[in-house]
Amino acid sequence: MSAKDKAKAKAERAKGQIKETTGKAAGDRRMEAEGRAAKAKGEVREAVEKGKDALKRKRGGH
Fold this sequence. Notes:
Layout: H1 3-26, H2 29-58
Helix pairs in contact: 1-2
C-alpha cells in the first residue's frame, strides 16, 4: 500500500467516525448513517490496498 493510499484510507475512516459521532450527538440519523458509510468505505479501501500488498509480496515484487 502506498503511503498516499494508506493516508487517504485512514483519513476517510477518521472523517466518517467524526461525522457519525457528530450525528449521534446532534440526533441527526442521516448524518450518523453517512458517517458510518464513509467509515466503511475507508475500511474497505484499506483492506483492498492490504490485499494488493499481500499479492505483491507473494509474487516477489516490492
